[in-house]
Amino acid sequence: xxxxxxxxxxxxxxxxxxxxxxxxxxxxxxxxxxxxxxxxxxxxxxxxxxxxxxxxxxxxxxxxxxxxxxxxxxxxxxxxxxxxxxxxxxxxxxxxxxxxxxxxxxxxxxxxxxxxxxxxxxxxxxxxxxxxxxxxxxxxxxxxxxxxxxxxxxxxxxxxxxxxxxxxxxxxxxxxxxxxxxxxxxxxxxxxxxxxxxxxxxxxxxxxxxxxxxxxxxxxxxxxxxxxxxxxxxxxxxxxxxxxxxxxxxxxxxxxxxxxxxxxx
Length: 265
Description:
Helix content is about 20%, strand content about 35%. The chain has 6 helices and 14 strands.
């Protein structure tokens, strides 16, 4: 379960934005990589094949509009609370506040005491617990929401999900559920139907060691408390906020001046 916790932290920004997690859990090959799915459990599938009805297709269209809108948000700042509850291992539970910001192909994200900043010239990782700032060569992060809509639809349609949609306190709530799914029994999206701002993202992940016992599932829940489009906090995506000097002879700067610099550039 430690690996699961680490995986969640590494994929925080996509958990927040939901799309890459949708991609990961919708694609069997990726599921096996990230969850180490036991291929001997191939018999664990729903008994009856279900295809989306016309009503379900219409309900899914709102998710695709949300998906397309989020893809268009090249400037975005959000914050909230991320939690993961493992009903089979309470020691693996986590609950952390987070911040995520995007400006084109540059990203900032923070969860708990860890910050990661992906800039054009460097990739910076900061551990406040360890008092370290690590700088390495820039890493090309895939922008979220790259899976084509028709592909996503076909994947979901082939995995026996039922679609449910409604309104709660003015927000749209759309969920895909499959009680016997091998890896993810439920996706749920809560969003403003007018602005298409995401409010919540929820997933119920199957415990592969006890797949037929829903009480042993893992729940991943993201609640977004602040959503600002077309906004960039310049300081958190500014190299000078973290490092002074020039590559590769940097030194920690500003609030991090007393941190130990690990130069992996």
